[in-house]
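Q: Here's a chain of 502 amino acids. Please give me its 3D structure as tokens.
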Amino acid sequence: MINEETKKAELEELLPILEKIRGRHTELVSVYIPADYDVNATQRQLEAEKSTAKNIKSTATRKNVTEALEKIVRFLKEFKRTPANGMAIFCGNISEVEGQQDLQLWSVEPIQPLKTRLYRCDKEFVLDALKEQLEIKEVYGLLVMDRKEATIGMLIGKRIEVLQKMTSGVPSKVRAGGQCLSPDSWVSLNNKNKDIINLKINDKIRCLNFKSNKIVFTKVKNKWETIKKRILEIVVGDRESIICSLDHTFFKKVEFNIKEIIARDLKIEDVLICSNNNNNLLELKIINIKEENGNFKLIDIETEEGNFFANGILVHNSSQRFHRITEGLTKEFYKRIADEMKKIFSENKKLKGILIGGPIPTKDEFMDGKYLPTPLQTKVIGVRDIGDSDESGLKELVGKSQDILSQQESIMERKILENFFDTLGSKPDKAAYEYKDVKRALEMGAVDTLILSKKLKKEVSKELIKLAENISSKIEIVSTETTEGEQFFNIGGIGAILRFKV
């Protein structure tokens, strides 16, 4: 019985040959016999077609078609029954010289059961049904991502194809975003006030705990300087003013709620949350706003609580705001990734599953947020921790998903070759890889599995396959598209795992 890999290899070799052939007229004969169809019935049909062919006006075409049909009928008489998967036969005059005849016949048993019954004379052979059997039946969508970039790819057979690369625009570090105050702005420590320029990391300054609505102390986590060309001076009540960048965030009282608002959007009469020296909360109106242009050195800080009082006015923690901005950019990026995945994969009928990889928080955020449309969400068959978000990440993702892709072609090929190399290393008397040794083992009936590279010379492959079929050996045909396949070809492209020592 011919191994499926052998059938595939034969078909891959034959189709390019047949595709190139062109007849001068409609004299190339294609015959498809479905699985389980009576081969004798096909012979009778072709005998009847010989009578029809007599009506062809062109003498040369009539002669070529008739003789092609006779050749096919003679060939079919060698079969008592149709092969398990059916049969495809191609016959015709392939001579390139007018008036000369070179009548050739090819036959092949398909990889999968043939469902098509066909007889046709044309200028070229009918090959579509066989081509479909060679096409990859299953593909897998791939996504590797972090907050800065993402790469979408596809696993097609053993080949990883990069389909789309994307970047988010999310800053790599959440640092100062421009929410800055004048260096002489003061903050309150336990028992004294200090200008913001003199603050040190880990100093504890006053802030508001929104849950308890009480003034507490928060630790300074970070501090940095920046230059701004535009500033605002905001005066509240009759007691205090503050100088800040245009995008610094304040807390505005709106009826019974507190709303965050950027300095440039503030207006006179807006009410801000403030405090006095007795740690009492106040609500003070803005009585004046003045803008200045120039080059101004400003100070920015980050606190644990996310806010602090400067000059008695409650202001937002810079990094907290930019954390929200970053979160917003990240969510938009996730949406763009999902939209691109939808465009690429939604209409792909061969898509068997989707694999997603990335750092622990990122990929989980993407999945938990359900950004993918439901049909694609249900296709996700694996999520893996991956370090890279580029093409190398795609390779790592496939490598770490071997348990999921155990039946996928590239993984199966690697397993076959890994088993061979392991046997060769640990039990060298149960493996062979040189032509003469493998052939001898086949002739002795000692080969359990014969492994051949697709790049091996065809005449050598055919010789060894025939010997293997005679002793019911398992036959594996491997490519050179994987590292293991290339290594195997480099040692000769022939290998065998033995049933017993030779």
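Q: Can you summarize the key feature?
A: Residues 139-170+326-400 form a domain with the Nucleotidyltransferase; domain 5 fold (CATH 3.30.420.60).
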